[in-house]
């Protein structure tokens, strides 16, 4: 995590990245903790590589809970991302975020 700047009202702008989970859980999704803040006010940027998609996310305190999906092009509805399976090893991917927080 890196504090890259401050807003006019003194909030931190923080960049962070992490490897994906080695054992993804559909029940718990993936939690990205931003240690340089106690509370995330705004998520400015959220990216995942490796051909995966962020289907949804929520914020609680300094944690971003991320639902990770993928496109299954073998299905006729490939334009809709499906959540990755329980137990999927996503440790080779990187999730990056830029947030504003206090």
Q: Summary?
A:
This protein is mostly beta strands and 102 residues long. Helices cover 0% and strands 51% of the residues.
Q: Secondary-structure element order, as H and E?
A: EEEEEEEE
Percent of residues in beta strands: over 45%
CATH-level-2 architecture: Sandwich
Strands across the major sheet, in which order?
A: 1-2-8-4
Task: Write structural notes for this entry.
This protein is mostly beta strands and 102 residues long. The chain has one domain (2-101): Sandwich (Immunoglobulin-like), CATH 2.60.40. The chain is built from no helices and eight strands. It has strands at residues 2-6, 12-19, 30-33, 40-48, 53-60, 63-70, 82-83, 94-101. The protein has a four-stranded antiparallel β-sheet with strand order 1-2-8-4, with no helix packed on it. A hairpin with a 5-residue loop joins β1 (2-6) and β2. The chain is elongated and about 50 Å long. The model has no long low-confidence stretch (mean pLDDT 94).
């Amino acid at each position: 995590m890196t504090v890259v700047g401050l807003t006019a009202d003194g909030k931190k702008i923080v960049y962070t990245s992490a490897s994906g989970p080695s054992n993804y859980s559909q029940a718990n999704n993936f939690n990205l903790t931003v240690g340089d803040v106690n509370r995330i006010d705004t998520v400015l940027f959220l990216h995942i590589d490796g051909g995966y998609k962020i289907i949804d996310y929520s914020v609680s305190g300094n944690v971003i809970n991320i639902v990770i999906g993928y496109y299954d092009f073998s299905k006729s509805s490939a334009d809709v991302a499906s959540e990755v399976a329980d137990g999927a090893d996503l440790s080779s991917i990187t999730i990056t975020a830029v947030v504003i927080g206090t």
